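In response to a reviewer's request, we include the raw inputs and outputs for one of the modeled complexes. The two entities were modeled together in a single run.
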Amino acid sequence: MMLDLFIDLSLFTMLVATGIAIVKMRRLFGVTMMAGVFSLLSAMLLVTLDAVDVAFTEAAVGAGISTVLMLSTLTLTSRIEKKPVHTPWIPLLVVTVTGAAIIYGTLDMPHFGDANAPAQVGVAAQYMERGPEDMDIPNVVTYILASYRGYDTMGETAVVFTAGVGVLMLISGLRRRRRKHPKDEGEVG
Amino acid sequence: MHHHLILRVVTKMLVAPIILFALYVQFHGDFSPGGGFQAGVIMAVGFILYGIVYGMEKVQAVLPAWLAHKMMALGVMIYASPGVISLLLGYNFLDYRFISPHHPSHGQHWGVFVVEFGVLVTVTGVMISIYYAFASRRPAISDEEW
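The model returned the following structure tokens for the whole complex.
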């Protein structure tokens, strides 16, 4: 019990420290690296919540791919953040109000591990109960995602596909293939 | 990146284990954490690491951009294919029991296997394509930035 509390507190302290460091830094290369650290810390928090699959994804996507993509973006823009021209008070007010609203919203959420939480009393209980005989697959997350909720996961895959197509259309510089006419040789549409 | 000897050597050693680990995450996903999404990202990371250190030409010789683009759509098609086949055979969409009607859990195994493979192909393709799209806008990160 004490150990859990200690781990939670130290992880959250490091998370906040990383956040403050990101705000303070001006060199965007360092900011990118700190964002990766932030993702890794979040992944560790998810491990303490026993959500290993989510932690895995967070570590791979948040710390791995996002860092690379932000670095690739950095090579296309400037490396140093500009000094803000406005006073920081209005953004601070907006952040405080939004944060307060979010915290107020969490008050209505069920407690951690609450047996009567909506997530526990819905179909999840049935999935857990019938899964082992229906599927014969030990990993609950896998069989719920790929089989019981296979339709949703197909949607997710389509979302990933759509995101990729969107990025390619915006920045890849691919050009429409055109049949070669002798006239517009060398000119690409 | 030509004089970063340590990076080049370490990269060369790491790429194969990264891809192997991606395959482990993919095909061991029934028993341990992970699945198509995570495996796809890890697989893409292997290629991206190689691309960062050795340059775009080298990595595109292994996995050309057109192939990564085709993989994006191919994965969704692989995912949807058991669904379409199950519809044609008179089952519900993505009802994997059609694969072995007498032993439903075997059908589930194969169904999950196929759709997770579809996810792997799409996620790998998308991640690598996005990286290619960003990285081919300009030469890679210059040596002073490291």
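As requested, we also summarize the result in words. Chain A touches chain B through 48 residues (CB under 8 Å). Residues 184-189 of chain A have pLDDT under 50 and may be disordered.
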